[in-house]
Design brief:
Blueprint lengths: L4 E4 L4 H14 L6 E7 L9 H24 L4 E7 L7 H11 L4 E5 L5 H7 L2 H8 L3 E5 L2
Parallel strand pairs: 1-2, 1-4, 2-3, 4-5
Length: about 140
């Protein structure tokens, strides 16, 4: 069984499926569930400082909400807000680095299931994480 689990969540419907899977697996673990969300500051590069603060606040709210939910189910949680920057790090890079840092045995994240042009333009975090992860990856579907 997996003991060091990293959940990457973004508040989307696809992410909710990952949350449910992570909570179910975390209940069998003796270690806390690690939960991250990524604020795409680089993606909002031309945004106002206020809008970036808004994104950061929303990220903290999401993490706090997930922490409360997990605790209500008896799951210990460690949360961390990650941010992209102008250094060229993408969301998937940050998730992979966090998994390495905490020596994750499993990464859980959702997939939006984008195809075609949308996937080409926006990219797939789930696909990149699957291809480059040092550990097992669970992709949850809606």
């Amino acid at each position: 069984m997996y003991h060091r689990i990293l959940l990457a969540a973004d508040g989307s419907a696809a992410s909710e499926a990952a949350v449910r899977q992570a909570f179910a697996l975390a209940q069998t673990s003796s270690e806390p569930l690690h939960v991250v969300t990524v604020v795409d500051v680089f993606g909002a590069y031309y945004a106002t400082p206020e809008s970036i603060v808004f994104l950061q606040d929303e990220g903290h709210k999401l993490l706090q909400s997930l922490q409360h939910r997990a605790q209500s189910e008896g799951i210990s949680v460690v949360t961390r807000l990650l941010e992209t920057d102008t250094g060229g790090k993408h969301i998937s890079d940050l998730i992979l680095a966090e998994a390495e840092r905490m020596h994750a045995q499993l990464i859980i994240l959702g997939s939006h299931g984008w195809r075609g042009m949308r996937k080409l333009l926006i990219g797939s975090v789930a696909q990149t994480v699957c291809q480059a992860a040092h550990c097992s990856v669970l992709i949850a579907r809606q």
